[in-house]
Amino acid sequence: MVDPVTALAIAGNVSQFLETAYKVSSRIKLYCGKSNSAPAVFHDLAVQIPMLCYLVEDCRSLQTENVADPDNLIPVLDGCRRVIESLDRLVSSVLPDADDALGTKVLKGVKSVNIQNKVIECKTELESYKTTLALHLNIVTARQTSASSGTQTLLPSFHHVPATGRSRFVGRGDILQSISQSLRPGGRDPRIAVLLGMGGQGKTSLALEYCRREIASRYFRFIIWIDSSSPAALERSFAQAAENLAAMSGDKRTFANSKAHIGFIKTTIETAESPWLFILDNFDNPGSFKKILDVTPHSAFGAVLFTSRHNSCALLGTPIAIPGMTQGDGTELLLQRAGVERTISNLEQARKVVDMLGNLPLAIDQSAAYIRSRKISPAEFIGHYQKRREKVLKHIPNVWDYHRSVDGEEDETPVSVFGTWELSLQQALDQSQDEEATMDFLTTIAFFNNLDIRMEMFKAAFERTKTAFDWTSLFVIDDEWDEFEYQDVVTALADLSLLQYRASQGLSGEDDHEEGLGLHSFSLHPLVRDWIQLRIPAAERQVYVSRALEILRRYIESAGNDYQKWTLKERRAAMSHVDACVEARSKFVRRWSSKEYDDARDALAIIYRFYADDGRYAEAEAICRHILEHDKRLRGESSQEFIDSEIRLADVYLLRGSYHEAENIITRLRPNMDQCSAQMNISLLKKVAKIYFKQGRYDEAVSQYQDVLTRQQDFLAQEHLEVMDTRHLLAQVYRNQGRHVEAIDLFISILDAYHTAGLDDHLGALQCTVDLAGAYRALAQYSRAAEYYDRVIAGISLRLSADHPMALSARLVRAINLRELGRIDEAEDAFRDIVERFGRILGPFHPDTLRAIMNFAILCDRSGRPERAEGLYRAALAGREKAMGFDNQYTMRTVERLASLLWSLDRCDEAETLALRALRGCRKASLEDDLRAMDISGEGERERRPYWPVEVLFTRAVERDRKLLGETHTDRVEAERSLAAVYARQDRGVGAAAPELDAGGVGDDGSGVGKSVLVVVAERRKLSDPPPPYSPAEGSKTAPVEETVPCTNDQVRG
Description:
- Helices cover 63% and strands 5% of the residues.
- By secondary structure, it is mainly α.
- The longest helix has 34 residues, at 116-149.
- The chain starts with a helix and ends in a 41-residue tail after the last strand.
C-alpha cells in the first residue's frame, strides 16, 4: 500500500513529464518532417518519446496498491521529468520556429550541430528510464495475472537488446528469412545459426533487426544480447543482463563473479521452460574462448545466433553467409541515410556509388554520412571518392551507430569500415608465424585484380626470379615451394574474412582446373584491396607496383610459348591482373628512378607483348610509349634499349593498321642496322616485308621474306618457330599474288612441321589452317574451305576470347565463305556481330573493321538490299580512302563495288564521277596509259564511248580478276557482268561473248600490254545465286584477291 504523499508525487511527476514530452515530441516530428538534413538523433527521439509517454501513462493509471516498488519508481519518474525538461530547453534553442527571422534560423542551425552530443546524452538517459519502467510494468502485470488466477508468479518477458539504429533498417529480407528458418526451435537441442562475413557486411545490424522483429512477434520470451568480441566484453554483457533480470524479478541478490552472472541467467531461463534467444555478437576470435556454448542455456526451447567474421565458426551451427547488399537495397540505404532527394539523376548516381563501394553496407552508410555532412549529391560524391578515397572511408560522423569494444576496453569506440578491417588484420598478424612476411604478402596481393588471385603466380615468381621477396619465407621449405604452407597462410587470412579462399576439389588437369580455376585461388573485396593500398605510405606503393609487375612477368613467362600451358580462363584471369597492375602504375608511379626502372623494364616489355598478343593494341601502345619515354630519358636515343622500344612501337603500328607510321620508324632505323645483332636485323627486315605486304607491294615483300629465310638458315633450324613464321608470311604473299599452288604447298608443309613437333593447337598452326582454308576459298572450293574453317574456329575459341582480333578475323573469313555458299542468314548474323566487335575493339577506321564492313556490304548487295549496301560501301570507302588512298587494291575494290551498285540502280552519272575521282587518285597506275591501250585517248573517241571512266575502272577489275581468280569465282563473274553492262550502254554488244578489247596490264600467260582479253558473261547465273559446287577440276584454277587480307603471326586475315 502506498501512502497518499507518495501517490501524489507519482501523479505530479507523470503529469509534468507528459505535458513537456508531448510538446517536445510534436516539435521534433515537425522539424524532421520539414528538413532532409535533420540529424539522426532527432529521428530516433521522434520514435522514442511517444513510446516512453505510453509507459508513463500506464504508471499514472496504476492503482496505488499495485505499485511494485514506490521508492524506486519515484526517482525514475523524476529523472524522466528532469531529462525531458532539459531536452525541451535544448530543442527550443536550436529548432527554428515558423516566425523566426532568417538570421535566427541560420544561428539555430549552427547551434544544432554543436549540441548534438548533449541531445544524444538525453536520448540515452531516456532509453535507460524506459527500460526500467517497462520492467516495472511487466512485474505489476505478472502479479495481477497471478493474483487473479491463484497460480505461481510468472516472470515477464525479458529483452536485453541494444537500442541502436531503430527504425532505420533497409532491405535484406531474404537473409532475415534464412535466420528465422534456421532458429525456430525443434528437436532436443537449441538451434544455432552463424552469420559469417567480412567486417562491414552488416552482420550486427541483421542480428539487431531480427531481434526487433522477434520482440514484436512475442515468440521468444527471453532475448539476451551478449558482446563476445573478447572474454572481458562477454563478462560485462552478462553482468548487465543478470542485474537487469534480477531487478525485474525482484531478486535482491548480489553476484560474486562472472560465473554467478552466467549461472543465474542460465538457471532462470532453463526453469522458465519458455522460448529464448541468445545473440553472441562479434564472435571474431574463437580461440580466446574455451567452450562458448557453455554460457548459453541448455534446453530445447532456445536458439543461439552468432555473428562472426571468422570462418571456423561455421562449425558451431548453420552457417549463413552474408554477402553485400543488392543494388536496390544499397541504393535505398544510401539515399535514406544521405537525406538526398529521390530524383532520377540521384537514383542513377546512387547506383553507381553502390557498385563502386562493392555493395558493402558499412561503406555505403559511411559514404551517406559523408554526403549528408558535406551537403553534396551522389554524383559529386563520386568525384570526392576518386580523389580522396582514404579520407572518405575513414570518415566517422558525430552521430554513428557502429561502435566496438577494442582490446577488451569497457568503453566502445566508433568504428569505420577501414577500422573494422584493421581489427581483423591485427588478429591475423598476431596469429602468424612471421608478421612482417605476412604483411608483405597481403600488401603485394592488393596490387593485383581483386578476383581470382592464384597460387601459381607466386610459385612462378619464386621459381623464376633471383629476387628474394619477403613473403617467400612463408611458403618455402628447404628451398622448395610448399603448397601446403601456402594453403595454411591463405586459409588463416580467409578465416578472418580478409579474403575469400577457394581450394580446388580436384587434381590438376581435372574439370576444375580445365575451367581455369587455380589450385588455390582467392579473392579480395575491392574495398579491402583499396584499404591495403592506402594504409601504406605513398613511397612504398611504387615499390609494390614494381614487385607486382615482376610477379606477373614471371607468371606470364611460365605459360610457355604461345601461352599453351594456360586455358582461356587462365589467360583472362592473368589479363585482369595485368590491367589492375598497370592501373596501379598509372596511379602511384609518377616517374621511375634509374634503379627502379632497371627492375621494372623487362616486366613492362613482357606485359606489352601480352597486351599485343591479346589484341589489346591501344594498351600495348601505351605501355610501349611508357617504356620509350623512360628509355629516352634514362638510356639515350642511341642506346640499344631505345632502338628495341622503337621496334616494338613499329610492331604496334602494324597491328593497328598504321602502316605509314610503322614504315617511318623502320626507315629511320635502317641506317643503324649494322650496329644491331643478326636477330635484330632479321626482325627489322621482317617488319619491312610486312609493310610491303600491307601496302600491296607483293614482289618486294616476297624478295624481302626470301632474304630473311636465307639469313635465318644460318643459325636456326628449318622447324624453328621463327622460321615457320617467316615461311607462313611468305605463303600469304604467294596467295595474294595468285600463286595458290605454291601457297597451298607451303601452308601444308608448315602444318606438317607443327604436327611433327606436337604443336597442332599452337596459334601459329591455327592461323596457318585459316590461311589454307582461305586459299581453297579463293579457288572457289567453298565446301572444302568450310571444313577447315569449322575445325579451326573451334580450336581458336578454346585459346582466345571472342573479342580477340585473331578470333574475329577467323570468324570473318568463315562468314565470307558462308556468303559464297549461299547461307545468307548465317553469314548476315555473323557479319553484324563481327562489325560491332571490330569497331568497338579496334576502332571504326582499322583495316579489319573496314574489311568487315565491306564484306557485309557485298552480302547486302547480292541479297537485293541496295540502300543498305550503298551505306556500307560508302562507309568502307571513306575509311579506306583516308587510311590507304586509291593506290591500295582494297580501296579500289570498294570503288568498283560501289560503282557497280550505282550503275545497276541507273545512277550512271554518279558511277562515272566516282570512277573518275578514283582513277585520278591513283599514282601508281597511269590513267593515260590505260586510255591509249584501250584506244580512247582522243576526245572524239571518248565522246563515242560514254562513261569511259567506268569502262576503265571495270576493265582493270576484269584484268586483275582474270589473272588471280578462277572462272567460276563470284567476284570474277560479277566484274565481267559489270563491264558487259557498260558495253551495253555504249551499244557495243552484250551476250555470251562481248567484243574483244585491247587490255593493258599482264595477261594470264604473263605477257605484257597489248594482250587481247575476252569478256565472258555467264548469262544463266544470277548474282544472288550460290557458286557451282566443288569439283576436282577446281584445284587447277587460279584464285582471288577478293576481300581477304593475309594474316601475320599476330593476327589471322583470310
